[in-house]
Amino acid sequence: MLNHYLNQIVPGDCLTLFKQISDNSIDVTFADPPFNLKKKYHRTKDSLEVQDYLNWCEAWITEMVRVTKPTGSILLHNIPKWLTYYTAVLNQRAHFKHWIAWDAPSSPMGKTLQPSHYGILFYAKEGKQQKFYEVRYPHKRCRKCHYLQKDYGGKKAGLHPFGPLVSDVWTDIHRVKHNKYRDEHPCQLPLHLLERVILMTTDEGDIVLDPFTGTGTTALAAKRLGRNFIGFELDEQYVQIAEKKLTQEEPNSKLGNLWVSWFLNEIVTIRDQDWEVLQQYYLIPDDLKKIDRVPIVPKDGKRKVYTPRTDMETKDMFSVFCQSV
Ligand SMILES: C[S@@+](CC[C@H](N)C(=O)[O-])C[C@H]1O[C@@H](n2cnc3c(N)ncnc32)[C@H](O)[C@@H]1O
User: Fold this and answer.
1) 34-62 pLDDT, tens per residue?
2) CATH of residue 211
């Protein structure tokens, strides 16, 4: 059945579809479920009683762990409130690695601290066997003067020319804010968030499964990085948007022969181990102390321009679809 689902967005309820997936067969499972915050999805309701929501979450989290390989990773994205319950379920079944704080401000709630991060729980199915690669992101610089934003004091000469290792606080990836980059979906994740997760946890050809695919972000990231994917999604409208976007994407997110993550015209994530080869594509100052004011630039002066699809065709297709149902 796995081959039947490979590189497909399968319409249906994830709990039913999980039954078709064998134990220990998937390299990475990533879930971004409905947050039970009364979001306006096209079809599904997002307002269960708390205990019903938690029971439902426990059922699919258990399935995620079951299908993940012993070398694999399990990642769950949600607001901190629900993640505190998820840890109780996951700690009994898998091995805690990180709570990644993804810095992404949301609306003020009133009478509370301003919520300013989403969490991504990162678990290994089996502690020591986990496949994991350290990743780097570009140094943050002043847009006008290009100086490093962080003061490294006397340690400048020891800086990595590309940028720091990614920590468990992600501040460099923003939510999809502009309508021209958004699908008709209330909570689409940014593609390069998923690309970072995939570069960190998988190799080319590995399988990534997302039980709540929405309009296909995880599948798209996997395809662009030469990985296989399986997506489940209850809402056929979202399935069709995802499928349409997938036909327009190629597995070509590379610099030379190495997989990297691009956003617009910048590389936003590389694997640490790939720098030895990737550095040949950059002009790097001889004196590394200058790295604080001289950004490294691609040697050919050209940068690939990756434009997320506005996909008006898809939207038009759905105005027809919606009129016909
Ligand atoms: C938070 S959104 C995921 C968004 C996705 N990460 C993206 O970037 O497009 C959750 C999705 O889960 C879907 N969903 C809700 N219940 C489901 C179920 N039982 N099985 C499969 N999908 C479901 C909803 O239709 C919605 O698209």
Assistant:
1) 998 766 666 667 777 899 999 999 999 99
2) 3.40.50.150
Q: How many domains does the chain contain in total? A: 1
Alpha-carbon separation of residue 74 from 90, 173, 189, 223 (angstroms): 9, 21, 17, 19
What is the reported pTM? Answer: 0.90
Reduced to 3 states (helix: H, G, I; strand: E, B; else coil), residue 95 is strand
Domain that holds residue 181: 2-324
Beta carbon of 236 within 6 Å of any ligand 1 atom: no
Q: Would you say the CB of residue 215 lies under 6 angstroms from ligand 1?
A: yes
Count other C-beta atoms under 10 Å from residue 148's C-beta: 17
Report the SS3 class of residue 295: coil
Q: Where are the alpha helices (DSSP H) in the chain?
A: 2-5, 14-18, 50-67, 80-90, 191-201, 217-224, 236-247, 275-278, 312-324
- Which atom from ligand 1 is nearest to the alpha carbon of 238? 27
Of 30, 44, 173, 215, the one to substitute when testing ligand 1's pocket (max ligand atoms within 8 A of C-beta) is: 44
